[in-house]
Amino acid sequence: MNKLTSEETERLHERPYFTFVDANRSSLSNDLFFINLTFKNDGMEKSFRTYPESNSKTNILNKTVSFKRIEPNRTPVIKVDQEFTTTWCLDDAKNFENCMVTVVIEFLDVLERKYTQSFEIALSMVNGEIHGDAISYSDPVLKSE
User: Fold this and answer.
1) Angle at 97 between CA 94 and CA 100, to 5 degrees
2) In angstroms, rounded to a whole number, what is the distance separating the alpha carbons of residues 34 and 87?
3) How far apart are CA 122 and CA 120, in angstroms?
4) Most distant CA pair in the chain: distance in Å?
5) pTM, entire model
6) Burial of 84 by CB count in 10 Å (0-12 exposed, 13-18 middle, 19+ buried)?
7) Are 87 and 32 in contact (CB under 8 A)?
8) Per residue of the chain (145 residues), what is the pLDDT tens digit?
9) Which of 120, 73, 92 is nearest to 33 (CA)?
10) Do the bridges between strand 34-41 and strand 83-90 make them parallel or antiparallel, or are there none, so unpaired?
11) Mind giving me the DSSP string for the chain?
12) Radius of gyration (Cα) for the chain, nearest Å?
């Protein structure tokens, strides 16, 4: 068994981690299908600079459609216990009822180490309201340079 270096031990103590909070219909547009996805920094004692992925794919009625982040990263530094919301657009949502999307968040810790974390999110329409559940989360993965 390999012994952890002091940096790896410190990194485990910092525990950078984001969780999925909520999904809802965005009020940015009445004509397009915009969805707000909210995440929270549940790490310990640190702030993280975030870079939510800007493109994803999903299937609606056996058809692949694009799921794109449409707004700039307005809150790039996310403190512990702080939430941030990203706005996404489905390019063909007229038949939207239920779909699964994958969202990847990249972030840097205070030591400029880059991590990625992915979320599988089930989106559904319930009584005209968007509802989202995180089906799975990955653990944050430290990216090698």
Assistant:
1) 110
2) 7
3) 7
4) 57
5) 0.77
6) buried
7) no
8) 455 566 655 554 556 788 999 999 887 666 667 889 999 988 875 667 776 666 666 655 566 667 788 877 777 788 888 898 888 887 766 656 678 888 888 888 777 788 888 898 988 888 878 889 999 988 888 887 5
9) 92
10) antiparallel
11) -PPPPHHHHHHHHH---EEEEEEEE-SS-SSS-EEEEEEEE--SS-EEEEEE-SEEEEEETTEEEEEEE-S--S--EEETT-EEEEEEEESS-TT-SEEEEEEEEEEE-TT--EEEEEEEEEEEEETTEEEEEEEEEPPPEEPP-
12) 17
Q: What is the token pair recorded at 61?
A: 């009625």
In one-letter notation, the amino acid at residue 9 is: T
